[in-house]
Amino acid sequence: MPDQYSRVNATRRAFIAGATAALIVRPAQATPETMAAAIRQVAGDATVTPGKVKIDLAPLVENGNAVAFGVSVDSPMTEKDYVKAIHVFTEKNPLPNVISVKLGPRAGRAEITTRIRLADTQQVHAVCELSDGTFWSHKVEVILTLSACLEDPV
Known about the structure:
20% of the residues lie in helices and 38% in strands. By secondary structure, the protein is an alpha+beta fold. The strands form 2 sheets. Strands 1, 3, 5, 6, 8 and 9 form a 6-stranded mixed sheet that branches.
């Protein structure tokens, strides 16, 4: 006759087995279209014009786990003319929105530096929103030799 602990363990094993069978692991499905949709979500119907933004990113990266990355925007950063936000998007990472930074005139400079992960060789886009409601952008192609952000589809 089974005791109460063996029934609990059997139930626990059955639950874990069932949950594991239901778990489906798929590789990231990001595409250039999902990135374009993410940019539209930020900019809405506004035109995103190339210019004023400069991405600082090496064109060839050995390892995508921690890539040095910078964005600067040509702006006087005064009370009437400043950068409100900088958004960074990638076309092949699991999620296209990499980072969004809100700025104001007291920031002094419209510039950010950080490290990002990159899943594959791809384009990286930076979009900035100015205080006058306009959007400006820059994109660069980066070649990656060792990818990050990938899940093993085993």
